[in-house]
Amino acid sequence: MTIEIYSKDNCPYCDKAKKLLEMRKMEFIEYKLDKDFSRDEILEWFPGVKTFPIITLDKRYIGGYNELYDLLLTY
After folding, report:
1. Could you give all domains of the chain from N- to C-terminal order, each with its CATH number?
2. Which H/E stretch holds residue 39?
3. Exposed site from 3, 18, 53, 69, fewest CB < 10 Å?
């Protein structure tokens, strides 16, 4: 299972998502806005998504922090 988090600086929900995964001892890959990708790229990759974090599981978009939290309740 590969978890990827697309995040940006000063994003409380990005921090919460990373902390949640760390508490569960789950590995993830983090990509940062303006370091690893641009705004234009993220809009192309995830059309219609307007908030951070953007979280994928095995390359499929699952949502943001709330969706990750809900998913982990059943995991």
Report:
1. 3-73 (3.40.30.10)
2. helix 39-45
3. 69
